[in-house]
Amino acid sequence: MIRVLLVDDDPLVRSALSLMLGGQRDLEVVGEASDGAQALRQVDALRPDVVLMDIRMPVMSGLDATRRLHQQPDPPHVVVLTTFDADDHVVGAVAAGADGFLLKDTPPDQIVDAIRKVAAGEAMLSASATRSLLSRLRNDPSVNRLRHAEERLALLTERELEVAVTVGRGLSNAEIAAELYLSVPTVKAHVSRLLGKLGCANRVQVAMCVHDAGLV
């Protein structure tokens, strides 16, 4: 079972999500929180696998809560679920360590699919969020992203670089395994190692690095 924590300041949203997820055999809603601070306490108490996190909440925002969660030694996966897809929100969520970014009007089956994918160590960004993120990165003159990305990728072995490029293309572990003629456990091991070498919190940040280097 994939244990899910719902974090949103609107009780109607939490109720709708709970009802939707409750019909899935492999998902279990283990708790709810109405703000980021409460979410941190619930994570400590309930140890969920995935947190569905709103952005705008009282006391502590979803981005601040996500950032604090990813400072923990064994954080849950976080999917940001919001009504806003502004560039700042997308970039902020990825920088904070979110594994996914979806809008609240995303079809229920896609939300369920996103939870399953991030629980398996993959990533899920809505199409609009992906466009916002890549547009922001292409137009960001503040740092030499190309040089920095190339320096980080130089730390990888040839096989790890191949895996990183396929992650940047948005492939799942199973798709990477098929393309590179590897087993899924081997792909998972490679992804885990390259996350550490690149200093990335998740696959989304790996994809950003690969895009910055111009490899996809």
Automatic annotation (TrEMBL):
Pfam families: GerE, Response_reg. It comes from the Bacteria. One of its GO terms (molecular function) is DNA binding. The keyword Chloroplast does not apply. Keywords: DNA-binding, Phosphoprotein, Transcription, Transcription regulation. SUPFAM superfamilies: CheY-like. The modification 4-aspartylphosphate is found at residue 54. Residues 149-214 form the HTH luxR-type domain. PANTHER family: TRANSCRIPTIONAL REGULATORY PROTEIN NARL-RELATED, TWO-COMPONENT RESPONSE REGULATOR. This is Two-component transcriptional response regulator, LuxR family.
